[in-house]
Amino acid sequence: MNQKHYEDYLKILKEELVPAMGCTEPIAIAYAAAVARKELGSLPDRVEIQVSGNIIKNVKSVIVPNTGGLRGIEAAAAAGIVVGDPELELRVIAEVEEKEKQKIYDFINSVPISVEFADNGNIFDIMVTLYAKEESSYIRICGFHTNIVEIRKNDKVLFFKEVDDEGSQENTDRSFITVEEIIEFADTVKIEDVKELLDFQIKCNMEIAEEGLRGDYGANIGKTLLTMYGEDDIKVRAKAKAAAGSDARMNGCEMPVVINSGSGNQGITASVPVIEYAAELGVSEEMKYRALVVSNLVTIHLKSGIGRLSAYCGAVSAGCGSGAGICYLYGGRFRDIAHTIVNSLAINSGIICDGAKASCAAKIASAVDAGILGYHMFKEGQQFYGGDGIVKKGVENTIVSVGKLAKDGMAETDKEILRIMLS
Q: Would you tell me how many other CB atoms lie within 10 Å of the CB of residue 284?
């Protein structure tokens, strides 16, 4: 295939499949706070935080790991300030000793932390200002989770870059991606080019899935599915293990996840069902890697038109990705995978994102189910056609339609969700 596109696909996978511990929005706040603390040079005596509505939505209800069960923006910021290591980025509070957790409680109870809604038009925006007597430091993250766009110490600007309407995205361009070329790349990629990356995804995401089934996390969606339907059906196991990973992750589990498109839940959804199906079908390691390439890139492709945060549940895109990867494992190629994606988008588009929390696991189960059903529909000669609702003729046209629905059409829905959550 085109050599530049080959290299760009590798870059995109490396940019998106990165490790994170805990829900990525509170971790981004912790990261910003840790960088601000480093710039300040001491613990602050006052903290001011400004965040966009989608950050409020995604941080409000989720447990921040390594805080002893604390939730919310204040907890995430305090953890980053007191015990965070900014060099670890999205693992900023991964290396916290038990005795250090009390310091987080003490800080929250002794230092004023104010939180304000920043209505400046950016979907993803975090601004943290720390004060210590006459000193201050300011960090702004915009666009995506580690994208620092401004650093100030007192009144001096130490670092600055322009923020455009998309939050100053500086990752590799994704506009060239198509489903057909994703499959060509998956068919031809040298396994050594992706093996280390995918091995880490397999290890992390399967380990947290198993932990979710062992432990008692949130609403225990994964366990509930296995209790209701048993473990013999691969379709049930694929849904249950993906949901269990989210059960654990949303409810304070201190294990890392390899994310996709800025989300651990999407990383779990795009990988765990494909890994589970690969084991069930007994395919080669090479085939498993190639199917994971399909799943991850289809997820990224779908999310590129939607944006990092939206009122549209990201698990839907990742469920389509996993359905595409499963189709690939069964020998499906472009025609089969294209119809799998269109079918699954027609089934589940419209599930809302009302923040990170326990119910994400149930949405993941539904998204994976839609991906699997989308594949089996086409296998049985059934499909949704262009003109059926938002479905258009051709997979790329349908993907564009869903992107418009999620990004533009659901913009007011996003605001109403936030109003309901905060009322």
A: 9
How many domains does the chain divide into?
2
Count of CB atoms within 10 A of residue 151's CB?
A: 18
Q: Average of pLDDT values for 260-286? A: 97
Asked whether residue 1 is assigned to any structural domain, the reply reads no
Residue 119's pLDDT band, with cuts at 50, 70 and 90, is confident
| Distances 212 to 81, 272, 414 between C-alpha atoms, Å | 29, 13, 29
What is the token pair recorded at 181? 């070329």
Gap between the Cα atoms of 336 and 408, Å rounded: 29
- Integer Cα distance of 396 and 23 in angstroms: 30
Question: What SS3 state is found at 127?
Answer: strand
**Which residue in the block uniquely carries the two structure tokens 């995918």?**
198
**Encoded amino acid at 188, one letter:** T
Among 181, 187, 177, 180, residue whose Cα is nearest residue 331: 187
pLDDT in tens, 237-249: 999 999 999 999 9
What pLDDT is recorded for position 389? 92
d(CA 270, CA 297) in angstroms, rounded, equals: 9
In sequence order, what DSSP letters do the residues of 74-107 get, joined into one string?
Answer: HHHHHHHHHH--GGGGGGTTSS--GGGHHHHHHH
- Compute the chain's Rg from CA coordinates: 21
Q: How many helices (H) and strands (E) does the chain have?
A: 16, 8
Taking the CA of residue 180 as centre, how many other CA atoms within 13 Å lie in the half-sphere pointing to its CB?
Answer: 6
Residue 28 lies inside a defined structural domain of this protein: yes
Does some domain include residue 208?
yes
Handedness of CA 226, 228, 233, 236 (dihedral sign): negative
Q: Which among 295, 250, 299 has a CA at the least distance from the CA of 277?
A: 295
Beta-carbon count within 10 A of 422 CB: 11
Place of tokens 């290396």: 95
Rounded to the nearest 10°, the torsion over CA 323, 328, 329, 332 is: 110
Looking at 160, 183, 201, which one is the last position of a domain?
Answer: 160
Hey, which bits of 225-316 come out as E strands? 256-258
In-domain check, residue 6: no
Q: Token pair of 335, please? A: 């025609």
Residue written as token pair 């008692």: 216
Place of tokens 């590129």: 304
